[in-house]
Amino acid sequence: MLRRFRGLRLMISLAIATVVVLSLWSVMIGSIPSGDRPLDLSQAVSIDDPQFDPPTDSSPSPPLPENTLLPLQRSDGAPYERLFAQVRQVHQQCLFTPPWYSVPIDRTNFGDRYRTDVRGQVVDNAPLIVLHETVASAQSTLDFFQTPHPRDEDQASYHELITLRGWLLHLVPWSKRAYGAGNSVFGRETVQTNLRLAPSVNNFALHFSLETPPEGRHNGSTHAGYTDAQYRTLAWLVAQTGIDLQRVTTHAAVDRSGERMDPRSFDWATFNRYWQAYRDRPCGDIRG
Q1: pLDDT band (50, 70, 90) for residue 216
Q2: Which end of the chain is least crowded, N or C, by CB within 10 Å?
Q3: pLDDT number for residue 36
Q4: For 233-265, what is each residue's pLDDT tens digit?
Q5: Helix segments in the chain, DSSP class H
Q6: How many CA atoms are closer than 13 Å to the CA of 29, on its beta-carbon side?
Q7: Are the C-beta atoms of residues 131 and 250 closer than 8 Å to each other?
Q8: 3-class DSSP state for residue 287?
Q9: In sequence order, what are the residues at sequence separation of 6 or more whose Cβ sits closer than 8 angstroms to the Cβ of residue 209?
Q10: What pLDDT band is residue 280 in, cutting at 50, 70 and 90?
């Protein structure tokens, strides 16, 4: 009888342990979107770190070709750097702001801004914000940007990437040119900085991208949309730049090829509501 009782206790203990393990496993699996790898921030540096220095800006720019037919003059990107410093200062002073990390990407995937175009004409376009989506997980996007791409046609990047959780990943210094939109124009504004490539808005654009939700990683024209945390973070970021909403546009709107649709299913009403709230209360704990 005693032996049977001990055996029953052992079976009950095993059953409880099994339920606990399966429950924990279910929680773990449920926290990671299907097919995604956990976001690797092992090389990340907090934007609020007093010693912050964008890792991607540490290597010198390659020399320009000695060619009198390409009278390009580099810009130090000072107006864009001042914008970044302005937003970063608000982030440091406020309690209710999104987590913000600088993540290094390969130097081939971004370049310099220029004060002249390929014809030597001075360009002084006002900053433009272009919105994107990744159509991939945040980690897959980072993997691509951290891979060297010597060919111009393969290079791509954003200045900021906003994860599904609403975290900001700072990828390219704002003083530099991210390769977010080739063959593009905003109204009549476009700048050519490479004779082999079509003119684009990259020379005066800030490229902000939203991580696409798992169910939207396809070539369809729509998906379920972005998280509330992403809209809050994007609205906070744009509001703190002080850039007029008339100069906030999408990749689809500036693309000349007609192939770009991003950001698909973007809810301008939600974005505008949060943008106005954060414009008026930069440090506010804005509830839905």
Answers
A1: confident
A2: N
A3: 61
A4: 999 999 999 999 999 999 999 999 989 999 999
A5: 2-30, 78-93, 138-145, 228-241, 251-254, 268-280
A6: 7
A7: yes
A8: coil
A9: 131, 132, 133, 134, 141, 158, 160, 161, 162, 180, 263
A10: very high
Rounded Cα–Cα distance for residues 153 and 156 (Å): 9
Cα–Cα dist 101/181, whole Å: 23
Q: How confident is the model at residue 198 (pLDDT cuts 50, 70, 90)?
A: very high
CB count in 10 Å sphere of residue 154: 13
User: What are the backbone dihedrals phi and psi of residue 71, each rounded to the nearest 5 degrees, phi first?
Assistant: -80, 50
Is the Cβ–Cβ distance between 132 and 180 less than 8 Å? yes
- Distance CA(204)–CA(196), nearest Å, equals 19
Residue 104 has pLDDT above 60, yes or no: yes
Tokens matching residue 124: 């002084």
Q: What phi and psi values does residue 251 have, to the nearest 5 degrees?
A: -60, -40
Cβ neighbors of 81 (< 8 A, separation 6 or more) are 173, 174, 175
pLDDT at position 193 over 90: yes
